[in-house]
Amino acid sequence: MNMRYLGAASALALAVSLGVAGTAAAQVSSATLRGTVTDGGQAEAGGTVTARDVATGFTSRGRIGADGGYVIPGLRPGTYEITVATADGDAAVDTVTLSLGQVGTLDLDTAGVSTDGATQVDDIVVVGRRIFEVRTPEIATNVSQAQINNLPQINRNFLNFAALAPGLRLSQDPQERTISAGGAPAQQINVFIDGQNQKSTIIDGGVAGQDDSRGNPFPQAGVQEFRVITQNFKAEYEQAGSAVITAVTRSGTNDFSGDVFVTYQDENWIEQDSFARRRGDPKPPLENLQYGFSVGGPIIEDTLHFFMAYERKDETRSNSVFSNDATYGSLFASEFGTFAAPFEQDLLFGKLSWQVNPDHRLELSGTFRDENDIRDFGGTTSFDRAQQVNTDVRSVVLKHQWTGAGFFNEATVDYFQYVYNPTALNFSDYGREFIVFRDDNAAPGFQYNVFNRDRTVFNTGGRSDNQYIEQENLTFKNDLTFTDVQWMGTHTIKLGAKYSMQTMYVNKQFGRNPQFRFDVEARPEINGSRDIPVSVFLGSAVPAADVENNVIGLYIQDDWQITPQLEINLGLRWDYEDNAVNNDYVTPTNVRNMLNAIQALPGYDFPSYFNPADYISDGDREAFKDAWQPRVGFSYDVFDDERTVVFGGAGRYYDRIGFNFAFDERFKPLQFNKEIFFSVAGGPRGGVNTVAWNPVYLTPAGLDPLLAAAPGAGEVFLVKNDAPIPYTDQYNIGLRQKLGDWQAEITLAAGRTKNEFAWYIANAATETGGRFSGPTPSSVGFPEFRNLIFFSAHDRERRYEAVYVKLDKPYNAQDGWGFNFAYTFMDAEQNGSRDNGLAGFDFDYNSPDQTPWYPSSFDERHRIVASGIIDLPADFKLSGIVTLGSGTPFTQFVCPTAVRPDPSNPDICWNAGRPKKYGFIIPDAWAYRQVDLRLTRTFELWDGHAVEAIFDAINVFNYRNYNGFEQCLCSAEYGDPRSQAFPTRSFQVGLRYRW
Length: 995
Prior knowledge:
mainly beta, seven-stranded mixed sheet
């Protein structure tokens, strides 16, 4: 990392920490308590309200204002003893429990406070009465530690329970567990753990470490609780266009406590999917073992505590290598068999918490994640061709909190590193692909064409690709809250500043291990031998990209309580990145000359949507400076009793452009893919010029000079100089109602996303068609580039309307049960590219505005997620999750109503098909049905020690949820399922010992 940046950043951090400061009570990782102190109904002026964390002994204070009001920001979620000491010597004591992100209201009367009958709920606990968080304008769902610990799941990923919030969906791909929200892809969410931004800055997944990973982002034993904000998050939140998830980790307490756990599952406890069973496939061996521990306690009681959590995950899967080719499969029998495909993950988290004195608190935490997954072999691909997908995450967070007279400051320094490193297990032996060629020529005899391939019989030898991708962030933040500002009401004003130094390193070795192709039939019309290849393929070496990016974020937030009933939340955020889209990139001279040559062709000009001048860069692209994000919310307590509240808001939310998109501009023109064709004698053969075969070409000494002399061609990718950043405008209005121990909520929500990006073809022959028939680089004297020129278009849009309904009765030990219900109705559509990843393409239309609007891939019109926990006799506990969905759409082919502004556009109706629905309570309503159960039996031992026996049953009724269908309207089998979604019915057992 550049030492100049390090020195400047260190100076900035020191100045900010000692001077001004940063976020709204740091609600990203804490809670706020506020209220009014009275004496017989008359406001008390002056004095102090002290909140003492019952578990740790840590204290926080807020002063009582002239109107009797107080605010205590920056509280960790937990149970607090609240003590009032007024200026005239009156006192009151109460006890409350606060949840993450909550702004809880507790009014205290010093004329007399009862301390009997405390009842705890997950949102807030108040002695003698329960108080829910009803005044927030956020559409938020809190997931408690009781839910994390007790609801059923297989893989201990706490983010699985984000699906309890309306508007969110969890992917069903076992190799990649991502979260989408608001009808948008995973890239638009963001996750914060203890306030640390977990955004993936380079590749897909939204959350760093979730792309291409079956692992967990964080040890579940280290998570205290988390909050899902579906819409209307405040100005302290950044880089998210759809939803935000913020989690707070566990800390040590004054009690030495911990637990040890283990879970187990094998293939006999997993039902085969219906297609594998119909084919008669044997069950692949599997053993899934998870184990770990957590421990925490005091180093100095009431002052210094520690906490540690470790989790290990071992999945021993197996893949079978075989060939069903009756004629040639036996040639490769020596490579057949069943081979282990293990997944291994280690997660470690540790934290120290120190209350230096009543006004100052320090917290230091670190996370270690290491995983590897051997995969991508089996069937007709030998074990030699496997790759190991390595994922590593390291993070450190140092946080200082300072409580003063009328202000609260939180200064943070954090380090975050994420490495994605798929590596070939065998990168030394050449790859070998054995092919059967096809003859479609009507002429007599076998007419050989090297590109006319019928099928691949077997793949063996080394793999062709390696990658190493690393993001590294060093971030300084300061958040300042003023808690006692009076002007036409009471203001809680929050200010925030962030500076992050980021490095993004990308090294892609695509095609770097030569891959030979052979005629498995040994036809005399080809080479007459299985030992003489027909071709070899190799990608050229491309220098790695090592990019520095400086990120600045500023915001101000005013929570303005105008009257006891009306509160307005006003926020403004500004974000800036100086090198998000290759801002220092210089367009190569040959690319410039090639574009000029095409534009100079007689009778041709580039289509109107592509102007080369907008894409040629001299290394001085201006960074996007217009990411101003106004955000407003309100809440109105209709009867001034915190039971019936109307709320709403609107705001703009900028996301970012992942570097993997802009990287193609650097990488693709230099990625020369070379293919050399062979024959026995050389010369024209099979439609190409060939080189006479020599066995020395199977050695590096023989092949390297041949490949070095061979021509190759890269691809031209052009990023727009003033590329705008994607943003979403969100709007909502809702009603929240407290009903005894229940809270109900209904919200009308909408979103409009603009500036999403994808690659389109620049050198089309016409304005609306001819995408593959326009002038090519080689036609104007630039054979080093392939035929298509790609440009970045930033005009894809999304529209989203939804109705959210929530009904919550939080679990508590006194009642012995809890229930949560979330219903989502959505209508999500988009235009532009159908690809949902960062590197999206569109080969079917010339520009985004020519594409039709069509349903989003995440457009599930109706979705219900209901969960519950109930204590049973004999120390049993039963919990469950019911998930019902009307199904996401699929694309229709040979569609007579397809939008085709040009004859070259395909007869495809994107995402126009809907899957067949089945009954669950409501007849024919659900394409997706899943019921998960967990049964736990607790055996109490001595002095708080206990053992829990756990049994999980996932998809207990083994509902067949399909994710692939016959898509051609021309087929009599249109709509019939072709593949089944994960999970099928599966069971798991576990033990947990706690003390």
